[in-house]
Design a protein that fits this description.
The protein is of the alpha+beta class. Helices cover about 30% and strands about 25% of the residues. The chain folds into 3 domains: about 40 residues, no CATH class; about 190 residues, Gamma-adaptin ear (GAE) domain (Immunoglobulin-like); about 180 residues, von Willebrand factor, type A domain (Rossmann fold), CATH 3.40.50.
Length: about 575
């Protein structure tokens, strides 16, 4: 008799059940393997067909967001309790942040431009630094989304320090001037490098009330493809456009173009007085289909041209996740198309939405090419900031092609580095070349830039040269450098130059204006997010302290929110 039949009935049944489960598991594993192989084969075919038109972007693996966000407890979001909750999230300092448990890796296809920090320069070899201004703010709100909504640290390439600094408005003094903005500088002791100084450059554009602006010809270009069918995409786009619509004046005109597999004229040019008609068109937008951005952009320019105001504002505002997959999908081709169209006097602003497949690189660069600005809308509060409180800055340009050039004095400055603006660096000869495009500044905008310098005679980042010592030149020994600025008035082709000397007069950081101290805190936060290479011993606690003591003036709670971000970032960094 077979030994199997000698076993008790219950054991025989258990053995049989185990065998069946094992066979089932093997079958499932084989099926999954075949499915995976088929998927890989499909991906390889797709990659082969698109390789000639688009550069390969390596997907980033990140932890899947938990059902519980990292928003602050009590803010009306689905946060729960203290300690570790479902999804492996722990409460730290009143915040819900991910723990190591409950995270499943998933493919993240978000795209970011390579963004390595600026190198240290020797004044002996490179005494002149040139860059374009930048008023974009999308990097800040995009980082906020990752930290608070997804409970993860942002990739370093998503962090553009100048956009973090310029997200905030600074109360730089304004004086009557023939120029459309005022220039203000302050030099302080650096909190990062011993014996170093920080030169803070501040530009404050003349503000103009929206009701006093010339008429606006606006084209809303809305992505309604299938990828936009998520709560933080098309529904939030519609909220944004409703908010903007409520600001319109009778003299303004609005056109709505939607696109997915094809493009559609949803609303012909309509007066701002017809708000009900505009809102009805917005409410009817629904998502579905592929994304053909190129043809839609062409239609948007055609519509803007039909309603062109010769003495007014002409602007396209595209709202999308940037996931173009039909038509021209090559990044440089799209960028070139928008750059060519800007010559017609129609600017191109980008409003980014969503997560997972978000193409931030495309959104930021298209806005730059189109003489517009880039914002990332992660919630309704941000939408109100961009298209309500700052609508005049978003729509009205007071100066174009604004370039900054700093010439450092070799008798007083040994080394320097520019904080941020990595993808805005220009060649020295580009400064005087009016054919070279640069950033525009809107009404009421503030722009801030920081240089960290090592004075002559102090130990810096670079080794001293054995043979090339600082030359004893006959120059202004009381100056750290000379600041030059060029800009064009809107619609003009010839630039205007003005400049000022940067005095050696310096003060301790604690005695600087609150604006300067807060800007330094934001810069330190950005540097820490990128690895903290230049923060030296300044840690999260010191960054938080510097930001906190200079966050007293905070009309809309933006500075308080930064303090929240620092807390969450600190907790996530400690859990790495």
């Amino acid at each position: 008799m077979n030994q199997y039949h000698l076993l008790p009935l219950t054991l025989r049944m258990l053995s049989l059940s185990t065998a069946v489960l094992a066979i089932s598991a093997c079958s499932t594993q084989l099926k999954n393997t075949q499915t995976a192989q088929e998927s890989v084969a499909m991906i390889e075919v797709a990659d082969a067909s698109s390789a000639a038109t688009a550069p390969m972007v390596q997907p980033m693996v990140r932890a899947a967001p938990s059902p519980v966000s990292a928003r602050r407890v009590g803010m009306g979001r689905p946060d729960s309790g203290q300690g570790v909750g479902r999804g492996g999230l722990a409460s730290v300092d009143g915040y819900i942040v991910p723990s190591e448990r409950g995270h499943v890796p998933q493919i993240d296809s978000e795209k970011y431009q390579s963004n390595a920090v600026n190198p240290v320069k020797s004044v002996t070899h490179d005494p002149v630094s040139t860059f374009s201004i930048d008023v974009d703010t999308g990097s800040y709100s995009n980082i906020r989304r990752m930290l608070l909504d997804e409970g993860r640290l942002p990739p370093v390439d998503a962090v553009r320090i100048e956009e973090l600094i310029n997200y905030f408005n600074y109360q730089y003094p304004q004086v009557k001037s023939v120029h459309p903005f005022t220039l203000n500088t302050e030099t302080v002791d650096s909190p990062w490098q011993p014996n170093a100084k920080l030169i803070r450059i501040g530009i404050k554009a003349t503000d103009v009330e929206y009701k006093k602006l010339p008429p606006a010809n606006l084209v809303f270009l809305v992505d309604v493809s299938g990828s936009m069918d998520e709560p933080n995409k098309l529904p939030l786009v519609k909220k944004t456009l409703r908010i903007l619509t409520e600001q319109l004046r009778p003299q303004d005109k609005v056109t709505i173009v939607s696109y997915s597999s094809g493009e559609q004229l949803v609303l012909a040019p309509t007066s701002g007085s017809e708000k009900d008609q505009i809102l009805k068109a917005i409410n009817q937008l629904t998502a579905g289909g592929a994304t053909s951005g190129q043809r839609a952009i062409q239609m948007a320019y055609d519509q803007a041209k039909k309603s062109f105001f010769k003495e007014g504002i002409n602007r396209i505002l595209i709202a999308t996740d940037g996931d173009f997959n039909v038509g021209i999908t090559n990044f440089e081709a799209l960028k070139g198309m928008v750059a060519e169209k800007r010559k017609s006097g129609i600017s191109f602003t980008t409003l980014g939405y969503g997560t997972g497949n978000y193409n931030e690189q495309l959104m930021e660069q298209l806005a730059d090419a189109g003489d517009g600005n880039y914002s990332y809308i992660d919630n309704e509060k941000e939408a109100k900031k961009v298209v309500q409180r700052q609508l005049n800055s978003t729509l009205a340009t007071v100066a174009q092609d604004v370039k900054i050039q700093m010439e450092f004095n070799p008798a007083t400055v040994k080394e320097y580095r520019l904080v941020g603006y990595e993808n805005r660096i220009l060649k020295q000869e580009d400064f005087n070349n009016d054919q070279v495009d640069a950033g525009d500044i809107g009404a009421g905008h503030t722009v801030t830039a920081l240089y960290e310098i090592i004075p002559v005679g102090q130990v810096g980042w670079l080794n001293d040269s054995r043979y090339q010592k600082t030359q004893n030149v006959d120059t202004k020994s009381g100056e750290f450098g000379f600041l030059n600025l060029r800009y064009k008035l809107p619609g003009q082709s010839k630039s205007i130059l003005f400049n000022q000397a940067i005095s050696k007069v310096s003060k301790p950081l604690s005695q600087a204006t609150q604006d300067t101290q807060f800007a330094v805190a934001v810069a330190a936060y950005g540097q820490q997010l990128k690895g903290g290479q230049y923060n030296a011993k300044m840690d999260w606690n010191e960054i938080q302290h510097l930001a906190s003591k200079n966050a007293k003036s905070d009309d809309f709670g933006l500075k308080a929110e930064l303090l929240d971000l620092i807390k969450v970032t600190k907790s996530l960094s400690q859990g790495k």
